[in-house]
Amino acid sequence: MASSAAYPDADENLEAIITRIDQKSHKIEALLKQQVPYPPLPTFPPPLLAHRIISSANWIVVHRAMMAIRDVEGMFTSLDPEYYDILMKYLYRGLSTGDRPTCDQCLKIHEQLTEKAGLGCVLRSLADTVNTV
Q1: Taking a C-beta distance cutoff of 8 angstroms, is the pair 74, 97 a contact?
Q2: Most buried by CB count within 10 Å: which residue of 19, 21, 92, 128?
Q3: Superfamily covering domain 10-127
Q4: Where does the chain have alpha helices with state H?
């Protein structure tokens, strides 16, 4: 990992990214408290930086939103198709946790997403090693 001395703006950029993630997290928390049947999944792409803090912060927000989804088909009406591959990456991250409720929810969403987006979505998310979640 590069030192912050080599990239003087790195700490400022990291703070800005974390602030943005935090703001989206608060927005999703507010929707969850309103008991929206399918809260909107965050629409920020996976971090291009291989930075664990950003990746973990994204995962926490997406995980909370995914676990609150009750109507999977309804969720797809509010999710732009350009985010299907990113959602698939987060589903595989959720499956990798080994947590039973998380895996059950991820498999439920995975089934619907594969029907909707096709097997290409699975292959693209597995083959993309640049954008990690």
Answers
A1: no
A2: 21
A3: Actin-related protein 2/3 complex subunit 5 (1.25.40.190)
A4: 10-33, 52-68, 72-78, 84-97, 100-117, 119-127
> Domain boundaries in the chain?
10-127
3-state class (DSSP) for residue 82: helix
pLDDT in tens, 6-56: 445 556 677 788 888 888 888 777 777 776 555 556 555 554 544 677 788
Q: Which of 117, 110, 118 is nearest to 89 (CA)?
A: 110
8 A C-beta contact, residue 57 and residue 21? yes
What the block records as the tokens of 47 is 């971090």
pTM > 0.90:
no
Can you tell me the distance from the alpha carbon of 64 to that of 84, in angstroms, rounded to the nearest whole number?
A: 18
